[in-house]
Specification:
The chain has helices at residues 7-15, 17-25, 30-45, 49-59, 66-79, 81-105. The protein has 111 residues and is an all-alpha fold.
């Protein structure tokens, strides 16, 4: 996986309240990408019983074991190169959009 965002960072971002806080500040185009990435990861990891337990906890707003989810995500990405590419691509798109949004805040209009 590309190292712009680590697997653990992606999992932490998608499975915690941090995502809700940041998405309220993110550009509208990023929110669908984040949801797509979350659903893609959740769909893939539901095949692992322990990961599925953690996903269910996340859906219920409970605290989860992010390291466990990250470990399963790493395994899934190694086992499925297409899934790995899709996660990388979506992660890079989200990261780029957030960087562009942050850069846009530093622009001053001079009249």
């Amino acid at each position: 996986m590309a190292e712009s965002l680590s697997v653990t960072a992606v999992v932490g971002f998608l499975f915690t309240k941090v995502a809700e806080t940041l998405t309220s500040k993110a550009v509208e185009a990023v929110i669908p990408k984040m949801n797509e990435l979350r659903q893609k990861i959740w769909g893939k990891l539901r095949g692992y019983p322990q990961a599925n337990i953690e996903i269910t906890k996340a859906e219920q707003g409970m605290e989860i074991d992010l390291d466990l989810i990250a470990d399963y995500l790493k395994v899934a990405m190694r086992q499925d190169p297409q899934f790995d590419k899709e996660v990388q691509d979506l992660t890079n798109e989200i990261n780029q959009a957030l960087e562009n949004e942050e850069q846009g805040k530093n622009i001053m209009n001079v009249y």
